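Is this the right way to post structure tokens for a design question? Let me know if I should format differently. Anyway, here goes:
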């Protein structure tokens, strides 16, 4: 259901905001509630972004905090 092109890796796969738009639309279509977004969030990540998500235990944060952490990390990085 989720293609590799739709995933965010933090290394040139597209902006986090554009990938979040795809992710949130997919979750809406699947009728996931807002409280369930964090559980599904890792499916939109790959590579460095996914490694960071698990290394820093972002799965224990709220969805908004996890997004904020990723945004802060990858905001100024250029690969």
């Amino acid at each position: 259901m989720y293609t590799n092109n739709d995933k965010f890796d933090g290394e040139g796969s597209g902006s986090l905001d554009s990938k979040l738009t795809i992710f949130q639309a997919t979750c809406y279509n699947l009728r996931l509630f807002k409280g369930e977004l964090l559980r599904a969030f890792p499916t939109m990540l790959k590579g460095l972004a996914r490694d960071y998500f698990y290394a820093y235990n972002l799965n224990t944060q709220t969805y908004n905090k996890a997004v904020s952490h990723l945004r802060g990390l990858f905001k100024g990085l250029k690969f």
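Format looks fine. Someone answered above. Worth noting: The chain has four helices and no strands. Residues 11 and 78 are 8 Å apart (CA to CA).
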